[in-house]
Structures are given as structure tokens and as C-alpha cells.
Design brief:
The protein is mostly helical. The chain is built from six helices and no strands. Helix 2 crosses helix 3 and helix 3 packs across helix 5.
Length: 152
């Protein structure tokens, strides 16, 4: 056996080590991605729960939310309209976060589709549409365009 053959045999363990290292790194990246998605989902769930809690704990706010989602705020006092707009704006910010996380790969299609379907249902209310027309400039252009094209 010559030195070249001995060198070739010696490269086999080195190549095997590289393959094993790559497989290990791929597994670690996959686990890290799962953890990041789980963290994003938990954050989004917490945000949604906080908004729901705000509405549920305040009878007046719950009434405004109900009226707004049913298009019954046309004769509301300015303060009532403002409260509804602010609550809706907070909720839409949570939906924008889901939209952005989805674009970045942090939210799966199932969660994204289900939340955007809720937005679409909300936009059946004339008060939600009217509030959106006043609030849309506060959201990213990409989210605003998505809402206007797909959900209104």
C-alpha cells in the first residue's frame, strides 16, 4: 500500500465526522425553529387574551365591542367611538403581528388562515370598515394592502 492509499483511507473518518456534524446541526436548527414558533405562538396568544380580557372585564367596553361588530355605532358619542377604535386598533395590531410572523416563517399557515378569517368576518361590520379607514395609516403598508385586497 502506498502513501496515497493510506491518505485516502485516513480521509474516511474525517468525512464521516463532517457528515455527523452536519446532521447534528440540522437537528439543532430544526429544534430551534420549533421553539421559536412555539414562543411566537405563545406571545400572540397572550396578546389576544389580554385584549379579550380588556373587553370582558368592562361591561361598557363589551357593549361597545358588540355594537361595533354589529355596525350599530353610527350614532355613538365621540368618546364611545374612540374607545371602540382604540380597542379595534389594538386587536388589529395583534393580527398584524400574526401577519408579519407568518411572512417571516414564525407562524404556520393554519394559525394564519384562521386568524385572517376572523378579520374577514369582522370586516362585514360597517363600523369596523369605517374605523379601518381611519386607522389603516397606523399599520404597515404590506398589512394594509393585504387587508384591503383580501379581507374587505
Amino acid at each position: 500500500m502506498n502513501w496515497e492509499a493510506i491518505g485516502a483511507v485516513g480521509e474516511i473518518p474525517g468525512a464521516s465526522g463532517v457528515v455527523i456534524t452536519l446532521l447534528y446541526l440540522a437537528t439543532q436548527i430544526r429544534q430551534s425553529t420549533r421553539q421559536a414558533r412555539a414562543g411566537a405562538y405563545q406571545t400572540l396568544t397572550d396578546t389576544g387574551a389580554a385584549i379579550i380580557q380588556m373587553i370582558v372585564q368592562d361591561k361598557e367596553m363589551a357593549h361597545l365591542w358588540y355594537m361595533g361588530l354589529n355596525g350599530e355605532l353610527c350614532n355613538a358619542e365621540p368618546a364611545e367611538w374612540t374607545r371602540f377604535q382604540l380597542a379595534l386598533g389594538s386587536w388589529l395590531e395583534a393580527m398584524e403581528s400574526i401577519f408579519m410572523q407568518h411572512r417571516l416563517g414564525g407562524v404556520d399557515d393554519e394559525l394564519f388562515d384562521s386568524r385572517m378569517q376572523i378579520v374577514k368576518v369582522f370586516f362585514q361590520s360597517s363600523d369596523v370598515v369605517r374605523a379601518w379607514d381611519q386607522l389603516r395609516f397606523t399599520f404597515s403598508r404590506s398589512f394594509s394592502e393585504y387587508v384591503d385586497k383580501n379581507l374587505r
